[in-house]
Design a protein that fits this description.
This protein is an alpha+beta fold. It has six helices and eight strands, in the order E-E-H-E-E-E-E-E-H-H-H-E-H-H. Helix 1 runs parallel beside helix 3.
Length: 245
């Protein structure tokens, strides 16, 4: 089951909806993701259209989607800060890495198969091999959600929001990512197609914590139900539903 969302800020590339088979953890600071399968071979082309088949897209398209997702998140949060009379500063850098310890956040090495926001250096970093594999296997909706979630952590830092437990920060970031995507659809920056909401829901179900994981454990992101509720609270009601105080 696939559907498309179009980032109107770039030239017509499709945003393929998340699929129920999603098995990659959306990891944040200090929480390693799962080992991805090896990236698939070069994308096959449809005989009718010459277009890559959904879920098997090129590195060049991956790079365009990364740039588009960052640009859209920056635009969205800049507008929100401007509306509230605050000065906005974009995240300083978005970095890639491919080996354990290649990049550190403060004194902590960032592990492979991960994506993080580092407040110490004000950067987002992601394992490029893991991200490309996920992009090809899942679709480019993963990239927009991933960057939206990590950019939300940067906004939390700018607003001075602190939480006692990891899960509170993660569920709030899910809500903020939902707001960013939902508001972008409402403004016409993204074009939502039939079935996309169901696919986002299926994807969030796949990245929820194991039901036996204590909610107060370090690194907890929330159960599937909690993550879905948080995401769609932001998606339906905008960032005002995310308790950004």
């Amino acid at each position: 089951m696939t559907a498309r969302m179009v980032d109107r800020s770039k030239r017509g590339a499709g945003l393929v909806g998340l699929v129920a088979a999603l098995a990659v953890t959306l990891a944040c600071m200090g929480t390693p993701g799962t080992e991805p399968a090896a990236p698939p071979p070069a994308p096959p082309a449809s005989e009718a259209s010459g277009e890559p088949v959904d879920g098997s897209m090129s590195v060049e398209e991956f790079e365009r989607d990364i740039s588009g997702a960052v640009r859209l998140a920056e635009q969205y949060w800049k507008e929100r800060f401007t509306e509230s009379g605050q000065r906005f500063e974009a995240v300083r850098r978005v970095l890639t890495y491919s080996r354990n310890g290649e990049i550190s956040c403060g004194q902590q090495e960032i592990p492979r198969n991960n994506a993080v926001y580092c407040p110490a250096g004000d950067f987002i970093a992601y394992d490029v091999n893991w991200a490309v594999a996920a992009f090809r296997q899942i679709g480019d909706a993963f990239i927009f959600f991933l960057l939206g979630h990590e950019y939300a952590h940067a906004i939390q830092a700018r607003l001075g929001i602190q939480h006692q437990f990891t899960i509170q920060s993660e569920l709030q970031a899910d809500c903020m990512a939902g707001a960013y995507l939902g508001d972008s659809v409402q403004s016409g920056q993204l074009d939502l197609q039939d079935g996309d909401l169901d696919e986002f829901r299926a994807g969030l179900e796949a990245v929820g914590d194991d039901p036996d994981q204590p909610w107060f454990a370090e690194g907890s992101h929330g159960t599937a139900r909690q993550r879905i509720e948080s995401f769609f609270r932001g998606y339906d009601s905008s960032f005002s539903a995310c308790d950004l105080t």
